[in-house]
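Re: [ENG-882] Designed sequences occasionally contain unexpected residues at chain ends

Forwarding the minimal case from QA. Structure tokens:
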């Protein structure tokens, strides 16, 4: 077998028919549009690169307008079909449109990595230059002192950013796309006969550049909109002067010529570096109207009758059946993806890095392919794709138009859902359309939806337990937020035990000096992180100032040189302080032993995601296997072996002989084999020749598993099958947002509370409209409305992510959860689930007065900068336009890469000038006013009729399926009507409710804390401080004692402290302290936590308080999580679960300073109604949010109750113990239950309020501090709101805010494990009547405070005290004695000592022993600690 030489890459080819019928018919009556209730053909809209100029008269925030669908038919009224100036049809635009999908290897960019060597290796494997990667570079030395500002030659402020992280400043590289394409047409039949030759072909030069001046636009055969593609021509940043920028709008690429006359001209014509990214237009590679004669062609079928010459009259082709074949190649071999291999990279490595694969298991070709893969020699590639039997009918639509069917589905079923994530939106749609159904072959998709509902909780928690599935709800809720880095945190490698509650052993406490050094290091790192976050925001503010200046055409908002200088100075100061802070971190880290300090990450900052919209039933146009490894072939796997001439008729033989040599000697024979394969695989060939041994079918010559025809038959992917192409590519949406203020005129409009989204849904904590507030009738009315809009690409990832996730679930599915048929159904048909999913990108940014779009930027990111050159370089033209007011080269470079969003400035109009357009927090409702889906050929379907309506009436409503997180509440008096700003009819709702959320990254800090004295060495002040991993967060233990009807209290280490029992003259009895144990040392007694514990015990001594506490604990056992194995379950029948007493603190921190309004339209109020942060002029006017602790319905939450902090905290008295806030307050209306006056039911009215804060790292008090890092940390810590809490130590406590992810706070395992190893189960017993007295006191068996009953030598031997029904546990009897100092019993100076005796079980049979009997009192104690106790099982029955 021959050795492979050429790699062949498959491409997907699509064909679209464009004629008058497709465009709504040829009627001249504007109302006679046959597409009125079907898919439309959108007018052509090209990107306007004129906006990419540094010119106030032209600059805009996007280069592409939204599609205008208000009048698209009939054909005489559509500007894509008809020249509206002359009324004549544009015949050159009618015909067959061909578009090929650029293969994935050309869409894979270079890898960005923090590891220079890894980055260099990855770039080399994919074939990219490594100029920008210095693999031998040492880390940049950090200067020892601050260098805030230097002066350059132009007296501009320059910035030394030092170690400042600018993000991924290096632009990714992409391989050049093939710039040559041979488009071959085979005429199977046509009418009139002979109008088209059997074979015809054209060559497309995708990279051929033509300036507008050189294009004969006045020629009737030239169409600027369809024959050329606007393009951005790249160059060095220094070359982008005014002239270069101004010519961008005049640059076009693309050229098509008959293959019979075409020859390769190389660099005789201007060329561009063509890849999928360079156009600055995301739609460029896939949207056919934007890439004419680049990645698509129009076959207008205008031909003279065959053989009559070019001067003959054009022949109108009425009908034709055509097959097309496209070959793509690189004109320069060195531009091939495999054209720059060297000895370090093999073909196999390059193939894998480009996400391609070869089949190597066919014996005839295996050896040759393996040899080819192992080689490091450069080689060639050729792309190929086919489409057979395209039907052209000049007067009819294609028989099957999927876009029309998708339009019907969309408008009949209103198949739109809105959720927080693609998964949430999909499950929302499935729930809304769930109906009982019996599976049959025609309804596999419905069954897939039903199966997804069955496993929806398992999509988030691989556990079939009810508790785990309930906990999954919190996990799902947390996925509703996008995260950003929360900063770094250092820890000692030797102290990682016990970190995050993962270890059962307490971490070894290092030397105090090391702990102090680590605390100071973390202070400095927190300060550095805070500076960097704010620096990023300031960079964008600096860019927004530049944009304001550039876009202010009327100069209504003056930006002065003083403004620029002030902003530049602030930015420069931040640069300098970042360098200083980074140096401080490095120096402090050097004080700790090497290889001991490790870096971790802190809790991330979070921000609510933009809502996700899903359109169900709409099939994605992407091949279902597009994201799989691309199955390529080498030329020995083709139908005909490379180098052999296939059998073909004379016309094809002549064509191949004339045209294919133009591809070059190294590709000619591979191209010949591919053309022969194209002919052999034609479905019209009844008896094709036998293929070569080792032949593999080309990708796409197979059945389409994702896009069935209306008949239910799955079509071939390389056959037209009488079906018009349909490839949804992007979605354009518009919505009207109405702001609903957090606070109303008299009462709050929004409250956090337990709510059920739907009648059959469980109750969950969420923000909602306050009961009694009817939005549609509020006074003053809700008129603060905004129009927000966006465009999002439809990508294949959502479908792939769903498939991957579901298959992972199925692999670990609990037995019996689904039956085998359902599992098989999901596996077989999941990929057929049709939906389009995309976030409403830009929604929140509009509320922040920021715009997404393609716009001119002052700098360029260089893909492969030379060593020493910056990766971000300013345009020369940008420097020139801003130089007059101080925007020089250094200033533009300082903006970094934070230039993706543009401020509103004066370019974005606003609905109502009475309200500020800026919203620091979202809380409102929105409805869709436009929703259009456009495919890659310009077909459009809309969910809302775009026909203009009368003023004031608005567009028709769209009623989406709404996720439980976004559904409005029903009206109080009518549960079938939604409480919306404009009420809909019963059971209908067009409004989506967005609960309160902060529109910038924020974080709920949570920590175990204590009230501590100042520690200068650690850098802490007197007051509430978070505890380190070595500090015990527990200040006491509470253990219910059912046998004594009391409460036992222990110190944090498990030492017994007090017991309080129900009963006695006052209803509660507190025996002596410490008994039956010795009192601890004076140091323990003076501990503030022990003092606090004493105050808690004193409170329990009040009968009402004790009744309240016991009632709360007893009620909580009904929802308690099962204890871990370390806590013996059999003890729960004797003593209750130990409860820990802790102190916890929470704060709501913004990642940066609060965002600001960037709209400067005259007359619009700039000031906010309510800012996020307090203002000095009105400290009370700022946002406050409710926060709730715990959840009574969730066993995975450990909160039993909590205390508010003392208003005047003192050491040992820092909590208000009088009132316990709890979910476990018994119903006061039950007459049998005792009153619980000290319990307050946790309810929305008493939820704690928490306010956002941000500490300015550049405030004067921090800058002037001896250690800015410590001063910064002190101010952050001071914002913690303290609470005391009674918690289940085995499960976390959860804090819910409704605006951020649920925050869990868990005790480290060692904290309760250590205490349980010491804590003992005991209770008071007696008086007992014994037939035999106990032994006298034996001093050698006296129990001291460190006694251990598990040691048999410490227990007095003998038969022991007999107790009836002692069937569980190994117990000892603690007998008290009154002992004088000399060891004798009795006397005034005697104290109580104890001696332990064994206990024996006896039955209850009377024995009538002789008198005298002895009455005994004492304690029963388990001989092992709680954490070590093991149920011994029933003891043997006593002998009679």
């Amino acid at each position: 077998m021959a050795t492979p030489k050429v790699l062949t890459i498959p491409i997907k080819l699509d064909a679209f028919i464009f004629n008058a019928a497709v465009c709504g018919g040829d009627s001249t009556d504007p109302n006679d549009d046959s597409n009125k209730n079907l898919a439309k053909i959108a007018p052509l809209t090209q990107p306007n690169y004129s906006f990419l100029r540094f010119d106030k008269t032209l600059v805009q925030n996007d280069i592409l307008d939204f599609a205008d669908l208000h009048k698209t038919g009939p054909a005489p009224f559509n500007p894509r079909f008809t020249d509206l100036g002359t009324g004549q049809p544009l015949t050159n635009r009618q015909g067959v449109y061909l578009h090929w999908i650029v293969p994935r290897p050309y869409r894979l960019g270079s890898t960005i990595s923090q590891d220079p060597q890894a980055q260099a290796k990855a770039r080399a494997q994919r074939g990219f230059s490594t100029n920008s990667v210095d693999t031998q570079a040492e880390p940049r030395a950090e200067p020892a002192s601050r260098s805030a500002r230097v002066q350059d030659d132009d007296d501009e402020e320059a910035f030394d950013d030092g170690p400042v992280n600018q993000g991924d400043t290096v632009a990714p590289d992409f391989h050049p796309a093939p710039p040559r394409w041979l488009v071959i047409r085979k005429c199977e039949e046509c009418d009139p006969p002979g109008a088209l030759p059997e074979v015809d072909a054209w060559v497309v030069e995708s990279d051929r550049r033509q300036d507008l001046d050189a294009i004969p636009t006045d020629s009737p055969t030239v169409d600027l909109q369809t024959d050329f593609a606007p393009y951005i021509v790249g160059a060095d940043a220094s070359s982008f002067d005014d002239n270069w920028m101004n010519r961008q709008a005049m640059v076009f690429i693309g050229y098509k010529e008959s293959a019979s006359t075409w020859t390769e001209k190389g660099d005789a014509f201007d060329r561009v570096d063509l890849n999928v990214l360079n156009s600055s237009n995301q739609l460029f590679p896939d949207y056919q109207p934007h890439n004419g004669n680049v990645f698509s062609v129009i076959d207008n079928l205008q031909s003279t009758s065959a053989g009559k010459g070019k001067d003959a009259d054009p022949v109108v082709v009425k009908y034709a059946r055509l097959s097309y074949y496209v070959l793509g190649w690189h004109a320069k071999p060195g531009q091939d993806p495999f054209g720059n291999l060297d000895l370090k990279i093999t073909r196999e490595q390059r193939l894998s890095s480009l996400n391609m694969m070869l089949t190597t298991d066919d014996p005839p070709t295996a050896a040759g392919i393996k040899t080819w893969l192992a080689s490091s020699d450069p080689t060639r590639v050729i792309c190929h794709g086919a489409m057979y039997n395209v039907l052209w009918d000049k007067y009819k639509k294609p028989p099957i138009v999927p876009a029309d069917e998708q339009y019907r589905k969309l408008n009949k079923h209103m198949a739109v859902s809105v959720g927080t994530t693609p998964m949430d939106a999909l499950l929302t749609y499935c729930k809304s359309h769930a109906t009982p159904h019996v599976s049959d072959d025609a309804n596999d998709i419905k069954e897939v939806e039903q199966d997804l509902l069955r496993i929806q909780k398992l999509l988030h928690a691989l556990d079939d337990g009810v508790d785990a599935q309930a906990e999954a709800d919190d996990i799902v809720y947390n996925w509703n937020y996008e995260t950003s880095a929360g900063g770094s945190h250092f820890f000692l490698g030797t102290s990682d035990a016990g970190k995050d509650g993962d270890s059962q052993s307490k971490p070894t406490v290092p030397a105090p000096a090391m702990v102090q050094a680590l605390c100071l290091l973390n202070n400095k790192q927190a300060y550095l992180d805070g500076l960097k976050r704010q620096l990023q925001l300031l960079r964008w503010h600096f860019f927004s100032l530049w944009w304001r200046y550039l876009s202010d055409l009327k100069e209504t908002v003056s930006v002065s040189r003083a403004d620029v200088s002030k902003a530049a100075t602030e930015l420069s100061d931040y640069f300098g302080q970042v360098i200083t802070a980074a140096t401080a971190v490095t120096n402090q880290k050097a004080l700790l032993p090497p290889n001991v300090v490790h870096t971790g990450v802190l809790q991330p900052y979070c921000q609510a995601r933009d809502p996700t919209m899903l359109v169900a039933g709409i099939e994605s146009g992407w091949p279902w296997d597009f994201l799989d490894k691309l199955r390529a072939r080498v030329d020995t796997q083709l139908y005909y072996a490379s180098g052999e001439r296939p059998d073909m008729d004379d016309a094809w033989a002549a064509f191949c002989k004339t045209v294919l040599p133009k591809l070059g000697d190294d590709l000619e024979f591979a191209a010949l084999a591919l053309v022969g394969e194209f002919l052999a695989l034609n479905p019209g060939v009844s008896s094709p020749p036998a293929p070569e041994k080792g032949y593999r079918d080309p990708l796409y010559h197979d059945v389409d598993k994702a896009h069935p025809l209306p008949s239910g038959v799955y079509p071939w992917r390389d056959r037209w099958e009488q079906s018009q192409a349909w490839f949804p590519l992007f979605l354009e949406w518009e919505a009207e947002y109405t702001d609903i203020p957090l606070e109303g005129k008299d009462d709050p409009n929004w409250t956090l509370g337990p709510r059920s989204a739907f009648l059959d849904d469980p109750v969950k904590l969420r923000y909602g409209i306050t009961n009694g507030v009817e939005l549609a009738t509020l006074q003053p009315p809700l008129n603060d409305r905004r129009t927000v809009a966006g465009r999002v690409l439809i990508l294949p990832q959502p479908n792939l992510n769903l498939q991957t996730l579901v298959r992972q679930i199925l692999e670990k599915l609990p037995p019996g959860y689904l039956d085998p048929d359902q599992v098989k159904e999901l596996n077989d048909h999941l990929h057929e689930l049709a939906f389009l999913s995309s976030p409403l990108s830009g929604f929140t940014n509009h509320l922040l007065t920021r715009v997404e779009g393609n716009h001119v930027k002052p700098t360029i990111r260089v893909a492969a900068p030379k060593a020493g050159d910056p990766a971000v370089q300013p345009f020369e033209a940008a420097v020139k336009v801003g130089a007059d007011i101080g925007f020089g080269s250094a200033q533009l470079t300082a903006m970094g890469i934070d230039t993706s969003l543009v401020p509103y400035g004066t370019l974005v109009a606003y609905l109502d000038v009475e309200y500020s357009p800026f919203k620091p927090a979202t809380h409102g409702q929105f409805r869709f006013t436009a929703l259009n889906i456009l495919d890659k050929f310009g077909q459009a379907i809309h969910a809302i009729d775009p026909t203009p309506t009368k003023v004031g009436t608005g567009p028709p409503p769209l009623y989406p399926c709404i996720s439980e997180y976004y559904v409005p509440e029903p009206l109080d008096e009518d549960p079938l009507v939604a409480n919306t700003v404009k009420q809909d009819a019963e059971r209908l709702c067009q409004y989506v409710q967005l609960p309160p959320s902060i529109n910038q990254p924020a974080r709920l800090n949570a920590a175990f804390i204590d009230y501590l004295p100042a520690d200068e060495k650690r850098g802490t002040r007197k007051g509430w401080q978070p505890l380190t991993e070595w500090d015990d967060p527990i200040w006491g233990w509470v253990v219910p004692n059912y046998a004594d009807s009391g409460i036992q209290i222990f110190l944090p280490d498990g030492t017994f402290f007090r017991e309080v029992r129900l009963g006695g003259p006052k209803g509660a009895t507190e025996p002596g302290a410490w008994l039956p144990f010795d009192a601890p040392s004076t140091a323990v007694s003076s501990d503030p936590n022990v003092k606090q514990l004493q105050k808690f015990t004193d409170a329990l001594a009040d009968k009402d308080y004790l009744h309240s506490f016991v009632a709360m604990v007893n009620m909580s056992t009904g929802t308690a999580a099962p204890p871990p194995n370390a806590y013996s379950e059999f003890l729960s029948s004797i003593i209750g679960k130990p409860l820990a007493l802790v102190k916890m603190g929470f704060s709501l921190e913004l990642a940066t300073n609060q965002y600001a309004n960037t709209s400067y339209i005259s007359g619009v109020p700039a000031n906010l109604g309510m800012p996020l942060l307090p203002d000095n002029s009105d400290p009370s006017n700022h946002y406050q949010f409710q926060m709730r602790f715990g959840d009574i319905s969730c066993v995975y939450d450990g909160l039993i109750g909590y205390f508010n902090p003392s208003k005047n905290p003192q050491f040992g008295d820092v909590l208000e113990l009088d009132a316990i806030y709890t979910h476990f307050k018994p119903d006061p209306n039950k007459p049998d239950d005792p009153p619980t006056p000290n319990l307050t039911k946790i309810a929305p009215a008493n939820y704690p309020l928490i306010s956002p804060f941000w500490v300015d790292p550049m405030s004067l008090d921090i800058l002037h501090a001896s250690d800015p890092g410590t001063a910064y940390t002190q101010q952050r810590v001071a914002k913690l709101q303290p609470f005391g809490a009674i918690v289940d130590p085995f499960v976390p406590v959860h804090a819910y805010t409704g605006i951020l992810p649920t925050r869990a706070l868990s005790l480290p395992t060692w904290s309760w494990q250590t205490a349980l190893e010491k804590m003992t189960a005991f209770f008071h017993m007696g008086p007992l009547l014994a037939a035999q007295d106990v032994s006298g006191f034996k001093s050698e068996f006296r129990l001291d405070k460190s006694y251990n009953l598990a040691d048999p030598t410490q227990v007095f031997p003998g038969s022991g005290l007999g107790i009836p029904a002692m069937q569980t546990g190994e117990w000892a009897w603690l007998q008290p004695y009154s002992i004088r100092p000399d060891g004798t019993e009795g006397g005034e100076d005697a104290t109580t000592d104890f001696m332990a005796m064994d206990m024996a079980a006896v039955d209850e049979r009377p024995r009538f022993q002789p008198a005298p009997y002895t009455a005994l009192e004492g304690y029963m104690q388990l001989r092992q600690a709680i954490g070590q106790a093991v149920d011994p099982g029933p003891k043997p029955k006593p002998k009679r």
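QA comment: On inspection the terminal residues look reasonable. The chain has a mean pLDDT of 83. Proposing we downgrade this to a documentation issue.
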